[in-house]
Amino acid sequence: MEARLLVLKITKKLLIATLSDGRVVSVPIARFPVLASAKVEKLEKFGISPGGYGVHWLDLDEDLSIKTLAAKPIKPSPKRVQILTKLRVSLNL
């Protein structure tokens, strides 16, 4: 049986999910561009799916599944880091 989302707390920088299997998962909001760019009022208006398999922000048209929230971030390859670094430098970011 897969874990279900019981509680979602939102801070300025984190989504903190309490799951039915006892885990508490903290995820940086920055991982989700739509959420990262949203105003606090919009972030606070969400609904947990009836089965607890995800969360939805109606005003932002954004959905996150438990799998997405609980997933470990993918570490980019050294080559990708090098390409992104060059791009940031060329764009003065």
List keywords for this structure.
93 residues; alpha+beta; NE0471 N-terminal domain-like; 3-stranded antiparallel β-sheet; 4 helices; globular
User: Which strand order do you get reading across the main beta sheet?
Assistant: 1-2-3
What is the rounded Rg? 16 Å
In what range is the share of β-strand residues?
A: 25-35%
Overall body shape: globular
**Architecture, CATH level 2?**
2-Layer Sandwich
SSE string: EEEHHEEEHH
Major sheet characteristics: 3 strands, antiparallel
Low-confidence stretches: none
Number of helices: 4
Mean pLDDT over all positions: 88
Cα-to-Cα separation, first versus last residue = 44 Å
| The CATH homology group name | Uncharacterised protein PF10387, DUF2442
The CATH class turns out to be Alpha Beta
Please state the structural category: alpha+beta
Write down the domain tally. 1
Give the helix level as a range of percent: 25-40%
Describe it:
The chain is an alpha+beta fold. It has a single domain (5-90), classed as Uncharacterised protein PF10387, DUF2442 (NE0471 N-terminal domain-like). 28% of the residues lie in helices and 29% in strands. It has helices at 33-36, 40-43, 66-70, 78-90, and strands at 5-10, 14-19, 24-28, 47-48, 54-57, 62-65. The strands form two sheets. It has a three-stranded antiparallel sheet with strand order 1-2-3.
